[in-house]
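Q: Convert this sequence to structure tokens.
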Amino acid sequence: MFPPVLNVAEPLAIKNVTCSPGTSSDAMVLIAVADEVPFGNYLRFRAGLQEPIREVCVLAVARECNSAFEWAAHEPEALSVGVPAEIIKSIKFREPTAAIEAPFGTVVEVIREAFTERSVSAATYDAAVSLLGVPLLIDLITLAGTYASTAALLKVFDMQLDAGETHLLPSLE
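A:
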């Protein structure tokens, strides 16, 4: 009745990797899994989300999940694809989205509401649909869920930034 259960690590032959929690080796395994999932690659590179929108989504998820590891990987990427430093700072310090320039404020607001309120207001939904349309909004939220899942994996395996790596995300805890 149900399809067979698949282990995403199995096709990558990484299921027997043993690492100490929190090591860079663990991160490489987790990143290898994420990179080999075709749906994740589709969402990141082929869904039609503009690069700055995509990276603002990822940063908003990293902020809401308090994921310093994801933030460290994506803040430089966001800057390289043209996300203004002021927008990144606004996300980092959870400034009100009304102060974040369009279209980024809408993206951040939909992520914040979905992940912190566990619902999205009609006004936010309407703004997001107006900005992206329903198909791209679905892709955006699915991308956000993918990064939230990665944040959970990083937490379970106690991933830490490498010694000497700058901690770019202040904790909200």
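Residues 21-156 form a domain with the AhpD-like fold (CATH 1.20.1290.10).
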